[in-house]
Amino acid sequence: MSNQDTEQYRQFIEKLQREENRQTTLNEIKNLLLLKPAGEAVSIIRDGGIARIIHCLNVSDKSQIDLTCEVLKICFDKFPVGDIVKKYTGHVMYLLRHEKKCVRRLAIDEINKCIIIDPGLLPIPEYIDVFVVVAQLVADQDITVANKAILITANLPFEAYPKVLEEMKIALEYTVSSKCNAYEVVVNISSKSFELFKLCADLGYIEHMMSQLQSDDVLYQLNVLELLSRLAVKPQGINYLMNNGALNLITEIIVDLPNNPLGNLLIPGYIKFVGCIAHHYPKEIFNKYPTILDLLFEAFDIGDQTLLLVALDVLGFIGVTIEGKLSLISLGRKYMQTVDKVAQLIRNSATETKVRALNCFASLISVDKDPNIPKSGPIDHRVTLMTREWFRCLSEHPSSMKFLCDTCKNPFSDIRLAAFNLLDAVCQHKWGEELVARVGGFIEYLLDRSVDYTNEAKEVKYNVIKKLASSAAFDEDTLDRIQTYIQQGPFFSENIMEVAMEEGD
């Protein structure tokens, strides 16, 4: 670095005092610093400061504001992460509160860099006021600024939150968008620990969220419901919802949905909410809040196609775990009637519904998708008995396995893939292996590589065949062919082998 560059920078800074010089001078500063090595540029900037550059933002001229932001970004980028906030804290606070969104974006980017590198880079006692301002920006009208503010505020050290969350409550006084942004921060941090959840609850955020379920704004209500569902899957969240009457309130809302003029728009969101918490806490929901499950089962009779697809996804999500299956079977006739309806949809529906119904059935029968069950452990005999009974519902004439075999040959690739997913679930059971062996020609079809499949279907079929590799349902010759198939892999082709042999010759 030369003294000449430092002196020139000082002169440029002086020239910025005169308004008529600013555009030209800002460009001169930009050209001076742009290609300078970071170390040299930082020394130059520190010597002359940035206060007068920032002063250039106090105008209504958009082109000057944009140019000033460009110059400031060059300056900021020369400094090590965190140094701008530490050395020019007052200026950064001013930029964060500026009326122009491009200026606020510039400042919040600097804070965000610090959080990404190390949340402890800016010690809370010294920079708490910076984080308070950032938290208030979750209500910013500019979505870029608001999203960065959400990200930063959701990733602060614990010690920041008593003051930050208290000050962030200002967002609850503005638009529904700003409220949802504040709720998102609350959900993100409440999910981290019981202590943070309690802090949010004590400050009234959770209660405020619950009150918004009475809103006449359907989209807003569904957004709040989705955020609550993310909270409800955490132990601290579900305990609060149960112990503070929140689930009782939701039950009342659900029961009254048929009388709500907007009920048809709200029901899918409430079904997803019910499914989300019932997936994680089936015993609690089935035992204490059976009424809210009626909403799910009634969806199979309403005749609304959109609602039906949601119900299929949610039923499969609840029944994918062993505990979920046992809770469903405890409903008795009501659930078995629903299984019959899913089977009917597989047999008689258009493509999209058929695919969703096949995937739902696969989740209900599968045992491998439950993360809480050891992969090598024995299957609960109750699950074995009831999944076999459910599968029988798929078809009487032809048999369920013959019907599934035919569906695996469907010319539509998405139906075929969903059928293979169901076959995979069935082959997770000994009774499933035996049924595959009984259908004449089915194992030959599975081992036939000449049938055209998508790569995804080839992988699923390969996984099915691996499950059959040690089955006692097949003779030794068939097992040898299965082992050969497995050794060759899912994407082996006879044509590729022929080409390789020709090239070897």
From TrEMBL:
GO terms for biological process: proteasome assembly. GO terms for cellular component: cytosol; proteasome complex. Pfam families: Proteasom_PSMB. Keywords: Proteasome. InterPro entries: ARM-like, ARM-type_fold, PSMD5. Gene3D superfamilies: Leucine-rich Repeat Variant (1.25.10.10). Belongs to the proteasome subunit S5B/HSM3 family. PANTHER family: 26S PROTEASOME NON-ATPASE REGULATORY SUBUNIT 5, 26S PROTEASOME NON-ATPASE REGULATORY SUBUNIT 5-RELATED. This is 26S proteasome non-ATPase regulatory subunit 5. It comes from Galleria mellonella.
